[in-house]
């Protein structure tokens, strides 16, 4: 009988535990923001959260303001950080900057010149150096707590607050409306000024004078929070990035949210800022392909997704994990985006400089996005950790295990596949596996991509580490660099067809479609229809075919076939930074720093002529001088084919 009672008691206790765990799990799910449901409650396309969304946020948001780290007065926290190798290195770097002369405030004269000339060089280096120093001084003072850095901190803060505009000058309007006090706007620069001042006031507290603290709060309110929330409620021409799909959205949003949830004394404003950021990030994430493709390129992936993950980590910390932007409303897509760098690499650290992207992965700048992608998306963990912003560094100190470098025991398989196919955007990387690998990246895409170059059908050939021919990348950001008539940005400066002296048109409808792919161990083939990229009524068909024969030293061919209802002039181009020699109308020898490739040209339907000319753009981001080697039929024809066969020369 006693045994029966014990059994009943155990069963009852087991049932209690089951229901307790179930209740706890369901309660946890209930307390976590359901982002899919959150979007269903949106007020149309308005960024500012609806009343129903605000009610959902109240259940997961704390009532107090965000604190990235404890104040300087919490010596248990800061002394522990100061004793770590990272803390010691950070303090050492800050000490090395103490004697540097402040470069702010940046004068109105320089601001106006930079705006008028599009001259970033006279402004941005000062801005970057200023913000880097101030961030180091703030955190160093927290680490050391001796007052050594306070004079410089006060000087920098006051100088920044004395500046009439926090924008990068080239982001102001032609009349310098923000500088002249006619409007308030947030850009990539203003969000940074705001974020650093918010961290300074939040961490240093009474180490700053009451007057400085009050003035920081006042300026952050009108320069950032008021401007941000006003534009979220109703588009006003100031913060047009709010529903954008480019890096601007995530970067500017990160600063606006950091400032508001740290600085604002209104719980309603803090709720609205977080809610607006979630609605805004839906637009940002929509700019990636379902396959994770980033049309802005690897550099802007690092910059934009870096700040998206910065927001995600900040909101996760702020709400104790109740807001999860790491999964958002589409975990699979976020996983693909997080793994984009590995999939986008061509070989040996090179990648396609399509649009305004970079061509080489470099060990510089923050790799915060790569670190968090390794944690949340299974991406390869970096072998070094690089931080650029104070909030990133604080997050690293708060999560030391996550920010440990990749050890030998943790190494992951990083061997690149024979090909990568981003089927959503229509981009293929075909990788050679020769002793000296010969590979190609080629894309269809469309002419409304972020940082678009009107480049449907463009490609880049890489042999070993050298970009031997193909896309020449972006013009440097100077006055006129974003003009559609800039020859490095239009299809004139890309290895794509030119028909009846007509270039590709701009817009979402002007696109390419990959119609066939064949991927094998020894060869890859891609066929794309690029006719829709041109507004030419007489053009009946235009097909580009790429074949990568991976046998031997490799052969890569690009073939363009066209038909028209009437005779048209038709040609394509070899684009290159390499030295070259035009042997005859069928042969061009391209010589890079350490490699050599022969380009053999054949035409069907007419006689071919080759004519070279320098790309008339003074400043190209890849550096050096680029050339367009035009390959054209001598006379108009109704149908024809041009094939360029590239073969490495040993």
UniProtKB/TrEMBL annotation:
The keyword Signal applies. Residues 1-24 form the signal peptide. Keywords: Signal. This is Heparinase II/III-like protein. The lineage of its organism: Bacteria, Pseudomonadati, Bacteroidota, Flavobacteriia, Flavobacteriales.
